[in-house]
Amino acid sequence: MSALAAAVAAPRVAAPRRASETRAVRASRTRVAAMSPSMPVAPELPLPDFLREPFKQVTERLEEALPADAKKQVLRAQYTSAVGLRLAFFLSQGVLSSRVSGSSDIDGAAAAAAIVKAVLDPEPRARVPDADSNLGNIVRNAADGRSLSDAEAAEVSQFLEQHLTCIVNLFRDELAHLEAGAYKFPYDLNPATAPASQWNPVDVFALSRDTLSDQSNVSKRRDEKAGQELLETFAPDPERYPAYYLQNFHYQTDGWLSADSARLYDFQVETLFLGSADTMRRQVLPYVSTFVREHHAVNGGEDGAGLNVLDAASGTGRFLTFLRDNWPAANYTALELSPHYLEATRVSNKRFDEEPKTETNGTLTLVEANCECMPFPDASFDAVTNVYLFHEMPKEARRNAAREFARVLKPGGKLFFVDSAQVGDGKYLGMEKAFDQALERFPQFNHEPYYRDYSLTDLNALFGEFGLVAEDGDPTVAWVSKCCAFTKRDVDDTNTAATETATVTEVVEPVVVEDADEAAQAR
Ligand SMILES: C[S@@+](CC[C@H](N)C(=O)[O-])C[C@H]1O[C@@H](n2cnc3c(N)ncnc32)[C@H](O)[C@@H]1O
Asked: Which tens digits make up the pLDDT trace of 182-240?
């Protein structure tokens, strides 16, 4: 095992009380879901047909024969090399992007030194912030380009160092889940199963180039605080696009409404979060895993068979790919307001529709609609997933969406929710001050008009109003994201007011997209 792998797998520091409680809750959740460690899939070799079956059997036998410890070593080595590469790649992108935007000038070497220190530190400090942790100045300028004094630069750099340590800890948490078998080794971290374009230098270069070239437009909008460009092209129409939706969130070009925006989105998000966004999303999978196992324990079947799952605001469909990779037999519906992002969902999920299809493979239905008013009958889904949407909605729209999630869920069904962490959540990571500062700075830097209000929202009360009851225990705070699960109460004990509101919700005609080209022409 490499030194890197050993370090990432090393035991943790004695964490503050709250944080260790959180881990205990997570550990028990993992135990329920645990099977055997999730081994990465072996590469498919170009073998003649007559050797394929024997090779498959040898690989399977070898895997069975390997002691659990040896499997863990293989898993650690592969995981740490994959995320190490990913972190290094997106750190370079982040540095380039900071140069293009010409404002804050990130020193890549100082940032890399902070990451290496966090990786090699057997007692990662971000859980217990260390006032003397500064390694050197990671940035010398403020976001507005102003030069920082030495004292200010040291303070900002220390803040960044703590957050970089959190990213390393996030990967440690994911590795623990993989070792416990809570979910599968992510398909895109394994060259044997990742989409070919992810390893094609020409494709990667094109994405990187286009993202960087768009960065100067993004920076210009940021400087001019121009987050409303879309209103020059689209008029708000409550039937189609509500006013809040027609904004350049993150100052991104075209907002949500172009194919270019959808093409660059994941790359931009991963650059912003240094390659950790998918891992943050996946921290809700242990909750899903427990739910699916409990479903099969009662109803039989496997791999999600018999479950109807809605991913509301699916974006480019990345989160769905992880759901489908783990539970391929469930039937999925992706709902999105942007036709371009919905098309991206279709493309990113193609692999599951084209791969050797078995009779048990579930389906994917694409629906273009607003999640404040969804075109589905009451109680039509066993689970709803919703990732990174609520921080981009005004209060009333959040309430509408929460009510809709409750309405379309069957009694006993689950809402799996991932969004930005909120004010005060730093206590779960042992760094309240640096955490709340990050939440305060984020909307200043990105166009996020509803972020502050979201970050102060009581989610349990918001969902609770509509009969969605928070799962016991603390939420999972995964660096700057939080994951939680809610259960739809049985009809008998659902709050009457919520039920009344739900039944008057108009069910609009669905736009079920079979083929994006046809849908675009029809429009
Ligand atoms: C920040 S992205 C998150 C996308 C995806 N879930 C992810 O994990 O990346 C927000 C997405 O929500 C969609 N969206 C925003 N408001 C919506 C609404 N009212 N109904 C449906 N989709 C909406 C946007 O088009 C965009 O794709």
From this structure: 999 999 999 889 998 888 889 999 999 999 999 888 888 888 888 888 888 887 787 78
258 alpha carbon – ligand 1 mean position (Å): 13
Using the 3D structure, point to which of 167, 194, 221 is the last residue of a domain.
194
Query: Residue 480 is part of which domain span?
Result: 277-522
DSSP three-state, residue 478: strand
Burial class (CB in 10 A: 0-12, 13-18, 19+), 235: exposed
> pTM of the prediction?
0.84
- Give the chain's domain count: 2
The H or E element that residue 419 is part of is: strand 409-420
How far, in Å, from the CA of 348 to the mean position of ligand 1? Answer: 16
14 and 158 together in one domain: yes
Cα 444 to middle of ligand 1, angstroms: 21
**Best mutation site among 257, 278, 387, 389 for ligand 1, i.e. most ligand atoms within 8 A of its Cβ?**
389
Distance from C-alpha of 79 to C-alpha of 188, rounded to nearest angstrom: 11
Within 6 Å (CB) of ligand 1, which residues are found? Answer: 245, 256, 281, 313-315, 319, 336-338, 341, 370-372, 387-389, 392
Residues 44, 60: Cα–Cα separation, whole Å: 13
Residues 301 and 167 placed together within one structural domain of the fold: no
